[in-house]
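Internal ticket - ligand job 354, (2R)-2,3-dihydroxypropanoic acid:
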Amino acid sequence: MWLRGLSRGILTELGRAVSSEAGRTMQRNQQLASVYVSRRIPQEALRLLQDSGICDIKHWDSEDPVPRTELLKGVAGADGLYCLLTEKIDKELLDAAGPKLKVISTMSVGFDHLSLEEIKKRGIRVGYTPDVLTNATAELTMALLLATARRLMEAVAEAKNGGWGTWKPMWLCGYGLSDSTVGIVGLGRIGLAVAQRLKPFGVKKFLYTDFEPKPEIAAEIQAEYVPLDKLAEQSDFVTVHCALTPETNGLCNKDFFSKMKRTAVFINTSRGAVVNQDDLYQALTTGQIGSAGLDVTVPEPLPTDHPLFALKNCVILPHIASATVATRTAMALLTSNNLLAGLKNEPMLKELPL
Ligand code: DGY
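stdout (structure tokens):
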């Protein structure tokens, strides 16, 4: 409406200006990197991408994972992919993305959802989020270990449901950390951070196993390197912190549990598939081990009618080890920064060596 009063000449000039602005926008758009973001992420992290001025963003703006067919469509022609551990980045997806894809940035420290061989073949760079989640994950591991060992879930239920009759000498007794031996499967950043937090609880000895000895890290907690079966035999608590790889898939199985102490507490905050869940169920129901605390399972979510949920000596959390506001925000920002660096052919803050 406001155009009505303008002269023909001005209109023409305006038209030219508009069309050349449109042209510039088009040109700019052609230079923008096409980026697919596969989930609703913290505002700060999205803003970082938007304000960079180099991204044309397609966003699956939902709390729930993007359906596979949508994802395959959405990534077509993308230069960059911002993904979560819920997205399987395999040959099918990489083919769907096409040859322009040059950077994948995952909002996770774990990378078992990425087909690294396929990614490497295509020369794609990968960003991930180590370090920023170490403290939160170690804290949650402590909480889960103590809740499992001291039977907190059972105790809360008893107190609430009338099971609290009177003080009884041996009622709801669990196991303490004082004077104990703790076995760490995978002595990386998180394994070490857990051990550092456990130490003041009076742990007598730390054992660890890994694909090779890590003397420098082990020295910080005076941990002894032992084979997996020795760790199983000697530990009062076993806590799993290794990455999921073909070598660690199903590592904690029947054989492993059969070597553990009958009173031992087993904790896993790494990946569900490191544990053979059927074997764990057997071990828990036959008294082969004392109890288990799991933050990760197969599948996720674990169906509510899964037999493990029925066990009093099994505490299951919904994969929340890194879930503090600060940590998840830091992970999301790091993921954006890694992505932008990759798009600009610059060094990433945290790049996965391939
Ligand atoms: C990861 O980052 O891999 C954790 O499992 C979730 O924080």
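Auto-summary: Residues 85, 108-110, 133, 322 surround (2R)-2,3-dihydroxypropanoic acid (CB under 6 Å). Residues 272 and 297 are 4 Å apart (CA to CA).
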